[in-house]
Structures are given as C-alpha cells and as structure tokens.
Write a structure and sequence with these properties.
The structure is a homodimer of 235-residue chains. With 235 residues, chain A is α/β, with parallel strands linked by helices. Chain A is built from eleven helices and six strands. At the A-B interface, helix 7 of A face helix 7 of B.
C-alpha cells in the first residue's frame, strides 16, 4: 500500500450514523410540536428516496443539484407519505439541515487524526460541500480538501466522481483508496481503478441492519477507522 | 459585518511570500547544479507569465487547465529566456512544485486560527486544489473547504470563481468576504457582490514592492490577518 497517497471517504453510514441521528432529530423536532412520529421509520423512508433522486441527475434528466436540494424534495415527499403535510416551512428547513448535524461513529474522529499522519484525507461523498464542512466542524475532522459530487458535478457511483477526487490530489486512480461501508460504492471505485477499504457498519440502518462484510473484492477490510489506521501503520 | 459567514482568501501574495520563496528555491536548486541565477529576477519573470497564461483559459481559447500546468508551461518559457535550456526534466518538475512549498507571512497561521473561531474559512485562489492542500499542510492551516479556480473551472477575476465559492457555503454573495492584498481581486469580488477586506503586503514582489493600501473602495483594510481578526472580533 506504499503508493497510496490519499484516502477518500464515503460519509453517510461510513463516518456518521445518519439513521440514528435523523431518527432522533425527526422524533424530537416534530415531537416538540405535538406530532408523534416513528423517527427510525421516517429516517429509513427519507433515505429510500436518496438513490432515485440522484438517478435523475446521473441520467441527465435533471441538471446537477446539490444533495441539500434533493434531500428537501425528498423530505416533502416523505412528509406527505406520513400524512404530515401540515409541517410548516421553517420546520422543513430545519429538518433538512439535520443532515448537516449528523453524529460520527465513535472511532471516526480519533481514526481520522491518526490516518492524517500518513495520508491526505478527503470526503468523497454525494453530500454537498457545505454539508461536509458542517459535519467536519461538528465532529472535529480536519480534511485536506472536500471532494465528491459537488466538485465532479455528478453523483456516485459514476466513475467521474472518484476520478475527479483522485485528480484533485494529482493522483493516479491507484494512488487513491476509497474507504466505505458499502460494497456498491467500493465496486464502483475499484472499477474506476482506485484501491478500496471496507469498514463494517453493522448498525447503519438501525440495530443489526448494515453490511458486516464486503460482498465484492476489496484491498482491505476493517472493523473501524482505528483498525484501518493500525493496518496502514498510522500510530 | 454580522451577516458575513465565510471568509475567502486570496493566497499568492496575501497569505504566502511567493516572491521570496520562489527566489530562494530557484537560487538554491539551480545553484546546487552550478548554475548561477538571480532568483528574485527569475521569480518576477515567472510570475509575469501568470496573467497571460490564465487569460488563455478565461478567454475560452484553452480548456480549463490546473495552475500547475500553466506554471510549468511558463517555467519552460522563463528558463529559455534566461538562457537555461539545459535544465533537465527532473529539475523542472521539482522547481514547478516550489509553488506547493511557499512560506506563509508570519501573521497568517495565527491569524487564520483566530478567524476560524467565528467564520468558515476557504482559499479562493487561482491555485489548484493539491497546491492549496500542500500549502495548508506546510503552514498548518485548517480550511473548511478548498474553493477557487479548480472548483469553478475558470480563473479569477471572473465573477464565476467568487460566486461558486460563496455558493459552496450556501452563502449569498454579500455573506462572503474576499480577503486579498490586491485591489484588482477585491474590485472583481465587490462587483460580484461580495464584501471585501484588503491586507497590506508591501513586500509582495520583493522589498518595498507591493500594495500598501487599496486603490478601490473596500469594506475593511488591515495590516495583517491578526489585525483583521481584531477588527472582526475574533480573539
């Protein structure tokens, strides 16, 4: 692995507990308005709209739009599906911004600190730059740059997103390693020529609902970013 | 200034002493090969090629190319002009990378640390992402994101570069403040709707050769980033 120069990170699920964070926010924010809602079910339903919304952009039917815009459109759909059309505009805006306030898994902040000692680090997420910057502030991460969908103006798993991220660091694809908790993300990164590391997040979609091991060939697998740092000799 | 959310920084001249750094590198690297050269004159000549090269992109005659690529083309021109065609390829590559090793003015690292307490911070430079990331590592800066030419795929002073940087932080133009040592940069930022802060760098192009005050209207002027932090209440 000596020629890997930059580690590129998937964020939703890999670095942050989007399901738990969104479930808590939705339950809390709507609960304070006297609206009882199953936060976990709402989080899952919101996320279920994620891939179809991005596919509109990937297919060329929609010009590139930041994920915040897609999230908001999806939120309106889910509120309607949950019979919550009465939720007001200010609350919708606040809820949409919950994606900027996601909590990291406990190993992530200390893991990134160690990985930073030997590698350039950047998110390569479908989240927009401001969302990534807010998550970094909240969770005390120090990125070298923010790469991903907004830089490439397209969405993963299209190859251009991974290749644009590697090129931003003047790296050939094989000098960049994609780190993710999703086999589909890693399969696409590998097809684009990148190295890959799988991180197990068995509770990503709620307790016991997440990938425990990669279903595709990867260069490395680890149970956490701290374990990845050990494997990569970052102490 | 309470509505300013992000500070965008020019880098060459404003944050780093490109002239002194390049002069030292050129003198040292070529000197070690027995080639005597006036480093300061060489640095000035190299920089003189900067605007014409970017104009090729701004005008649409050349597709967007990273500044590293333009710098390299310009280096070859200047070496020829200095009668140094004999300089080998490895040395040219090393010299071109000198732009990734520029030294910050002494106030910059502590100034950015203080400004970070209240504002999102990003470079909005014509330098490419890897160049910005390398300067940040070298000088211990912590950016929220790297904006600028590579994100906008065009060069300052075109409005799209400033507007893309503000939009990356979900800011209206007036919520972003451009910080620069060059009146031309600030005039263009102001024309795009941004706030502006002038930093005096009287020695930018060598001792006594630099702007001591803005020649255009600006929102703030300061003698250093520490003075700017004072003015903006970042203690």
């Amino acid at each position: 692995m000596t020629e890997v120069k930059v580690l590129l990170f998937d964020v939703f699920g890999t670095l942050v507990d989007w399901h738990g964070s969104i479930a808590r926010e939705v339950h809390g924010v709507l609960g304070a308005q006297g609206i009882e809602v199953d936060g976990a079910a709402f989080a899952t339903a919101w996320r279920d709209q994620y891939q179809p919304a991005m596919e509109e952009v990937r297919s060329g039917r929609l010009p590139f739009s930041k994920l915040d815009v897609l999230h908001r459109r999806n939120l309106d759909v889910v509120l309607k599906d949950f019979g919550l059309d009465r939720v007001d505009e200010a609350t919708r805006r606040h809820l949409n911004h919950a994606w900027h306030r996601l909590e990291a898994w406990p190993d992530v902040t200390p893991g990134l600190s160690r990985l930073r000692l030997k590698y350039r680090l950047a998110p390569c997420s479908n989240g927009n730059i401001s969302l990534m910057a807010d998550l970094a502030r909240r969770n005390d991460w120090h990125w070298d740059a923010i790469t991903g969908a907004e830089l490439a103006r397209d969405y993963k798993p299209k190859a251009i997103v991974y290749l644009t991220a590697a090129a931003a660091f003047d790296c050939a694809p094989q000098e960049a390693m994609m780190v993710a908790a999703h086999s589909s993300d890693l399969a696409a990164a590998a097809a684009a020529g990148l190295r890959t590391a799988f991180i197990a997040r068995p509770d990503e979609h709620g307790p016991g609902i997440g990938e425990t091991e990669a279903s595709v060939p990867v260069d490395l697998s680890a149970a956490s970013l701290l374990a990845l740092a050990d494997r990569l000799g970052c102490r």
